[in-house]
Amino acid sequence: SLLFHPVSCFPMNTPSPQVASGFDPVTTSDRFVLLDALRALALVGVCFANLEWFTGYRLVPMAFIEHWPLVDKVTMQLSQLFIDGKAFGLFSLLFGVGFAVQLHRAEARGTNGARFFARRLGILLMIGAVHALLLWYGDILQLYALVGFALLLFRHYSDRALLRWGVGLSLMGFLVNLGWHQMVPALPAATYDAHMDHAVRTFAGPSYGATLAANLDMIWEDQVLSWGPPVAGCWILARLLLGYCFGRWAMRTGFFQNPAAYARPLRRLFGWALVVGLGGGLLLRAVSVLLLAHRLNPDGYLVLMREVLRDPANLALSVAYAAGFGLLALRARWAAALGVLAPMGQMALTNYLVQTLVGLWLCYGYGLGLGLIGHIGPFASVGVCAAEVLAQLAFSHWWMRRFRFGPAEWLWRSLSYGHWQRLRRPIPALVAFG
User: Fold this and answer.
1) Residue 230 in contact with residue 180, Cβ under 8 Å?
2) pTM
3) Backbone dihedral angles phi then psi of residue 417, each to the nearest 5 degrees
């Protein structure tokens, strides 16, 4: 195995075909393993956030929540404070960082990185379309792929311009959201609740055909009417641009090779992002609790403030998570522990899709599904998520010791390059001692 220097986010520059513990190379090409570990952290949040929808408790009317046990109410509030929108934001930031890394390496090889990245986005769009139409309406891959094409237009912008656009789009998301809902009014509350109740009953039923029809309805109502593609595009592009800006700066300055040299600005970033993200998040939760108690006019100025602060607060806390994770990686005690997460992040696409399959099996009724939708509350979801993440982590370690890529990553990579990639790791030769 290879040694890992605890103050470096980058593995030792020595190729190895094996997977070791901690921040070690997993292929013959160097990887930024801290980024893989961060992807795993985001996957943990995505797992719990998506369970909220699979189990159906995010689909129930607000009045029903009032009758929940206190432990479920507290769990939901903590989830919305620390997880909802933050795991999505962290993934988006890492997507932008990955774009910067790919472009940098392509330029070093003298190849057209933008063209290859566009081809990868096209394949990702197809994977996301299959995932959304045939499995689950909550797919995010399509949005990443579509907004990723817009990211290509910014690849020659200066760092300062990228920062302006990133922060500006995050703040502007509220106005875009307001304009979208003026053009496409949301369904009346009673109609929306009836549709959600019908969806839950259908998902719990045994018919795959009826589930597909309900899935399409949910794509329209949840992804178009409630959220809106322009709104989603605005917020996702903001994160991609900020991630791209950081990734390009990190590649240029050698941050990944020697992050300890930037510990002080990293601490400042963590502090400010935590104050803004946590402060804004607590304000949002306070308003939501008042709304839940029917003590606040839904059209009042505090609700307007909540909508204005929602995305900047989510984005700030996502940045705080990334910066805090980086600071922990500078400590020898934490470095190896964080590195254990890396294999799960190396096959992030596979694990994301498997999380969908597990959610469908647990909560939906068709096929071998257990049909538990509506019977798993927020607190119970914590245990389900923990068991699922531990199983995925163990499987990822087992898989990456034997193979170079996750199954979905191998397919994505093979289609992007136009030929099948070698999947299995070479078996080390046995040396006999006489």
Assistant:
1) yes
2) 0.89
3) -85, -15
Q: For the chain, how many residues are written?
A: 434
* Helix (H), strand (E), coil (C) string for 144-155: HHHHHHHHHCCC
Residue 368 DSSP symbol? T
Q: Which residues pair with 403 in a beta bridge?
A: 424
Type of residue numbered 272: W
Whole-number Å distance between alpha carbons of 292 and 163: 36
The alpha carbon of 280 is separated from its chain's Cα centroid by a whole number of angstroms, namely 21
Cβ within 8 Å of residue 198, ≥6 positions away: 214
Backbone angles phi, psi at 424, to 5 degrees: -75, 140
Count of alpha carbons within 13 Å of 400, Cβ hemisphere only?
A: 29
DSSP string, 128-187: HHHHHHHT-TT--HHHHHHHHHHHHTTTTS-HHHHHHHHHHHHHHHHHHHHHHHHHSPPP
pLDDT of residue 427: 73
Dump pLDDT digits (tens) for 285-325: 887 777 666 555 555 566 666 777 788 899 999 999 999 99
- CA torsion sign for 300, 275, 38, 51 is negative
**Exposure string for 351-360, b = 16+ CB within 10 A, e = fewer:** bbbbbbebbb
Cβ 340 vs Cβ 22: under 8 Å: yes
Regions of the chain short of the pLDDT cut 50: 1-29, 430-434
pLDDT of residue 428: 62
Q: What is Dmax (Cα atoms) for the chain?
A: 84
Is 282 in contact with 242 (CB distance < 8 Å)?
A: no
